[in-house]
Amino acid sequence: MTARGAAAEAQAADYLVRQGLRIVARNWRCRQGEIDLIARDGATLVFVEVRARADSRFGGAAASITAAKQARIAAAARHYLMTVSPLPPCRFDAVCIDGGRLQWLKNCFDAAG
């Protein structure tokens, strides 16, 4: 991970904590992929993808979360959920940072990718 990527993830985690979420894990990895942040929003388990771009050309940070990337995140989330009992409600969020502007996209894709 680059220093810029680590800074973006730290900024995203700090922002989510200020919004009332509790960070459970950072950079959780398995064979299926990586989840940048795993958090709790009340009873809901939230899998968070963090994307940062210097500017919003070419669609910006949100556009960089392709269907293939969504599928890898969902596969990793399914693997993570094997360690959780009972199964909580879940959602997939993204924190996108374009040129310093942070945007939190809640429930932005589903496990089907």
From TrEMBL:
Instruction: Give any Pfam family that matches.
Output: UPF0102
Q: Would you identify the family this protein belongs to, as annotated?
A: Belongs to the UPF0102 family.
The protein in question is named UPF0102 protein N8I74_06905
What HAMAP family does the record tag this protein with?
Answer: UPF0102
**Superkingdom in the source lineage:** Bacteria
Please name the InterPro entries in this protein's record.
Restrct_endonuc-II-like, tRNA_endonuc-like_dom_sf, UPF0102_YraN-like
